[in-house]
Every structure is written in C-alpha cells, then in structure tokens.
# Entry
Amino acid sequence: MPQKNFHQTIIIGAGISGIKSSIELTKNGVDNIIIEARDRLGGRLHTIKTKTGIPMDLGASWFHDCLVNPLLKKTFDKGNVNFYYDDGKWDIVTKKHGVVSDNLKLRPVADEVNAYLKEICTKKYTPATDVSVREACYDYLKQKKFTLTKEQLEYAPQLVRYFELWIGSSWDLLSARCISEDAHYGRNAMVTNGYITFYNDELEELFKLKGHSETSQLIENGNILLNKCVYKITFDDKAKRIHIYTRDRVSKTIEEFECEYLICSIPLSVLKLQDYAQEGAIQWQPPLPIDIRAKLDRISFSSLGKVFLEFSDCFWPNKTDRFLCLAEPDDNLTDAIENGTKITFSKNRDSSWYKIDPRSSPDPFKYSVLFMNLSRAAKVPVLLALIAEPLTQYIESSSNEKVWQFFEPLVANISGKKTIPAPISIHHTVWSSDPFSRGSYTGLTIGDDPDACVDSLIEARDIFDGTGRVRFVGEGVTKEASGCVHGAWMSAKKEAGKIVSKINRSKL
# Structure
C-alpha cells in the first residue's frame, strides 16, 4: 500500500524555481517539501568538473538582462560568483572567407532583416498565419535584392541564423512573428566558476531557513526528496486535498503524498505529455482544464546544445570573445531569389521531419555554430560550442570520436591552422534525451502563442476546485525573461507569494 505524507504545500522539481518557491514559503512559515525525480539537485542548472578541475555548465551559463536582473546584484553582494561580460570582439567565420571582413557589410544587412522581422512580421502574422524565419528571410530578400551584393544575398541570411543559437531551434522552425519579441535588456554576464555556485547560495539560504547547517541536511531531513518521479496527481474535492503519487526510481516503491497547495516547476515539455507511459509524464485527475491543455499545444520546447572542447593549450585567436561560424549559403534560397522562382516552406511544427540520420557524417559547414572563447573568459583552454536542433540531437547521441570529427574542420577554420591538436576532453549536453527536460528550454516555433500559454498557466483557472491551489513556475511560465534563470526565479517568488497570501487570508 502507498505510504501517506501530508504537507501544507508540495513543490515538484528542485531546479532554481523549485528552490526559490521553497525559500519564499519557508520564510513565511508555510510547511513545504520538494519532490525531485533526478538523483541530483539543480534541474537545468548543472555544473560538472573535468579531470583537470575546470567547471563546465551543461545548463545555464549566463546572467542575462543585466540591466534588470535581480540576481546579478545579489551574487555580487555575496561575492563568490565570478562572471565575465563576453560581449567584446566577435568574429564571423565562413568556409570561403575565414574571418569575414567588415567590408562585406553583412551585419548591417542582418540588422535590417531583424528590423523587418520586428516591424513587419510581428504585425503581419498571427499564430494561424505565422511563417518561419527562413521564409521571412526569403520574403525580405525578394523585396530588397536590388540593394544587396551577391555575398550579402548569400551570407546575410546565414548571419540571421544567429537566432538558432539563442533559441536552440532551426530557422526552418523558428517563428518570424515571435522571434523579435524575445526582447532582452542589457548585457549578458557569463558565470566562469560554475552556475552551481549561485544555486548553492540559494540552497544555503534555504537550509538556514530550515534550521540546518549544510545542504545535505535538506535531504537527510526530508525537506527535499530525490529519485521520486511523480506520475499521478489527483484531487479529493470533499477533503480539499491534493494527492501526489510517486515512484522511486531506484527501489520502485510507490508513495502517496497529500497537500493543500501544489507548486509545479516541471518543464512545459514534460507538463504537456499525454502518453502517461512515458517517463516523467504526469496524469492529472481530474485532467487539466481544456483551455490549459490547448494553450500548451501552442508552445514549443527547443534543444540548444552545448559542447565543451578542452585542449592542452589555446591555439586560436585569443583576443576574440566569440566565433560565429556561418553555414554555407542556402542554394535553394539564393537560386529562387536570383531566378524569381517560388519555394514551398514547411509549416510542420514537429522537428522530426528534418532530423539528421545518426549513422551519417553531416557536413559541419551546413550548420550554424557559435564558439565561446573560454580561454579569454575564464582563462582555460576550452572552446564552448553552442548548437541548435537538429544538430543538437545528432551530437548528443554521438560518440566523442564522431563529435570531434564534426567540429575539427570548424575549429581549424577559426584558428587559421591546417593542423590542430585533438581535445583532451569532450563534454556535451544530453537535454534532448533527458526524460525530465526533453529539451533545453521554452522555444519559439511557427504558430506558437507563448503569451496565451503563459497567461493560462499563471491564471491557472478551473484546476480542481478552482481556488488557485495549484501554481506553475519556471522559465516557461513568465513573460519577463522567458528561458532565463532569473525569469524562473522571479516566477517562483511571485507564485509562491500568491499561496502565502491565500493562506494568510484564510486565517482572518
């Protein structure tokens, strides 16, 4: 028989939004526990260390929106988080040119395409009529080809694909309507000693509030439960209790928990699962309202990938923060523009139609890759490559030998050397195959309606008895700083505050 455990509030997920939710509740005297499916803390904040002691963030790496990011000042005051503003010199690199001369004037054209996306596409399209960034580039090029040189016509669209490396999806899928609305405020600061440092600071705040002296006591005392996969959530309308059922991933033991309030911090990619046989899927009884389920269908999840290439020494230009390797020109696009022919663009939101055969050896010069120079940022001989789907799924499922086979020509190209050493270690993400993330973070795919989805989750109407006892938090449940750590943190602070207010009102 399942064991029963009652807590006033239960939080699902021990990522940053789950921890912040617990902090806010504990501050205000609200009994709570966190249930986490993984065997570790952190969620999509995940720092590892190489054999040489270099911290590598497989999850978040940056404090974004430094103008308005509340975490920046908090970490500065704490004094133990190191960061570097990696917004210095960045080179555009192609197979044909090597480092591209500014005289080709690709950046101004790409800026004009961005303006086209913002001023035209945002207003012109609805979720029902939306087009991809690739199709929007085609429309722009048709209109402005008389103003462009041949090389601008070929390579400026490839520079626009920089969006792929911000969101994590191919330009074949990225929404032209939404992409320019993904606004950010201020600079971006890369954490150089591991984002886990900030996460541990939050854990320290939590364990002190709980009366403990170290993080391990949060687990030892049952404040955080690991390896507990939630598979069903039900509601007893008579008793006004939420029942949460978990399966221990090691012992397979079934447990039942009860609570009055629930904070759900799982990624939206997992929340929207309807096949309950899939690991991580949660069955709600009664089901989530039709409106919420419909809105979840109008939001996507991306797969930004990260690959760390560690070398014995730095052999690439060390006065550059970033190297953006452009894909070779899209011949179908340029031929259609030059010949005045039409292209049919797919509206399929499912990325499976353009996946890479894992048995193949894809051409590295057909994809956008952004290299972060960690030799400059963190004084370590490491290149961090950011990639987007479908390349992410290919790399994340490949051996290190195949990974290096793909990246070697690109690294040689940015270094300007014909012969380069092999890396001494390779580490990469596996978020796309992780059942508890199923990608990196919330995306912006053709036809997405993120604002409507966020509104429905924040309002959380008609769930169970309709009194607001279920709250959703995380990077995908905020209009401010969506996809960012501070967005998740702020959403947790706000939604946990609603539960505190509701409990306080009930005491009057």
Q: What stands out?
A: The radius of gyration is 24 Å. The mean pLDDT is 96.
